[in-house]
Automatic annotation (TrEMBL):
Pfam families the UniProt entry points to: ABC_tran, oligo_HPY
Organism: Pseudodonghicola xiamenensis
Taxonomic classification: Bacteria, Pseudomonadati, Pseudomonadota, Alphaproteobacteria, Rhodobacterales
Annotated GO biological process: peptide transport; transmembrane transport
InterPro entries in the record: AAA+_ATPase (IPR003593), ABC_transp_ATP-bind (IPR050319), ABC_transporter-like_ATP-bd (IPR003439), ABC_transporter-like_CS (IPR017871), Oligopep_ABC_C (IPR013563), P-loop_NTPase (IPR027417)
Protein name (database record): Glutathione import ATP-binding protein GsiA
Amino acid sequence: MLDNPIARIEGLRVEFETKDGPVVGVEDVSFSVNPGETVCIVGESGSGKSVSSLSLMRLVEFGGGEIAAGRLIFDRRDGGATDLARADQDLMRHIRGNEIGMIFQEPMTALNPVFTVGRQLTEGLRVHKGMTKAEARDRAVEILREVRIPEPERRMDQYPHELSGGMRQRVVIAMAMACEPRLLIADEPTTALDVTIQAEILALMDRLKRETGTAVMFITHDMAVVAQMADRVVVMFRGNKVEEGPVEQIFESPQHDYTKALLAAVPKLGEMRGKAAPEPMKLMGVENQKIEPIPGTDEVLLRVKGLTTRFAVKGGFFRRTVANVHAVEDVSFTLNKGQTLSLVGESGCGKSSCGRSVLRLVEPLSGEIELDRKDIMSLNDRDLRKARLDMQMIFQDPFASLNPQMQLMDQVAEPMRNYGIASGSEIQDRVASLFDRVQLPRSFMRRFPHEMSGGQRQRIAIARALALNPKLIVSDEAVSALDVSVQAQVLNLMMELQAELGLSYLFISHDMAVVERVSHHVGVMYLGRIVEMGPRAAVFENPQHPYTQALMKAVPIADPHRRKAEKDLNFKPIPSPIHSPDYRPEPSVYNEVAPGHLVLVTDSGY
């Protein structure tokens, strides 16, 4: 390592002007990044980690922020050390993209939808490197090849919306790496991605860093990603740095209470080995916590058989059906009272469509659904409305599923009013007890959704789902957008409610460690079919289907000694689920490898 760091942040303080006066985003933060080193900045939403990186790029001013104090020393390629906090915008324009590259969290907002991928990639090369159009195009194709994008020449002429999420993120990485910057800032670049794509992108960034000697500032709240990527770790909490050290030291002997709590809240794959039933997590700072296994019962609540859901693709002058998306293909499973069945898989595998089909929020094409011995498929609208008393759903994004103009109390009371279950003061008492149940203060009843944090909004969504005392709750990625510690609290809350009320969950997720923590049974989905299914221990400790094995291999582990190399990861690209109207898929045939442990024999394309 060279002695002089590429970037040094010294005593940074950032303030934002609001109607109620200045708000401090970052109070007093100092750290440095050395050449060829990856420094991970971890912390939860609002800790100031993104603000520090945006200050280094001097982009924080475009979001209403102001650098109130501190120095941002950047060691330029040929201009020596420069304090970016005092640099003018012309110099910053030259540095951005050329000497400091940035990968943003959401690739769709970082790319311009009206320009082709090629145009966006070559722009930086022509502005900063003075290349001709043809030279820039050749170099851009080369970079796309480096980030492992198939058929790069074809991709150059495509638009961002024509690429999948993982591909878009690779294009953003290619754009950031195009001018070979000295420093690369990656702001949560894998949050929105599936496990397999995330594993590939992390390995890719690691390889590019080693080949080019670029220094990396990596911002994340995922401790498993930190273990995979970091050389050094900076832990932030409420605008301050609370701890800094080499990655092994932070994981093995954290000093600050916040770091300890952060690590304790991470569900780790393999933690549940040898345990017969799911149990809540031990959380730091929670008094007299009951940790008891939740066995559930042997009585079947939900039986699904041969469920098939397809979406028509319309085209041509008369809007005829030209093809079908085979979202759910011949899926069968049972769920017992008081137990959790998890459906896992990557985006587009059909797990959300399957959950919605069970509640008939999307109409299935065929199949049988039986809830508590009631045939859900044969119900008319009036009876289906009545049957929904027993089945409720918690959506992925609580902000989108809550009404922004209603007070929280009315939102939780609404289902009871709709079904005429309670009235007057009785409703108020029941809402108050639901707030107690999801551990929110009763004073929040008069608040609106925008006045709550993400975790608190998700608790409101859970309270509203519980309002009708349902037997089945379909939880669609209900904790995927939450911070680690909030996610741990919400998961524990859901498990305590299950133990107390005997709820059954159909739990939809792509996070393998969370699924291992909460499930009694697990079904792994791929291209609309369940490829492997069985008791949690069987699927996690003895995966049989090649796709399940690939998924397990991709999960990052929160242990810096067990890092994944790029050569370990070889995923097949997922084939298209769109078929012509006359396509007849084969039925799903399973092989029982152990009692209750089924593996798909039909060719699933993997």
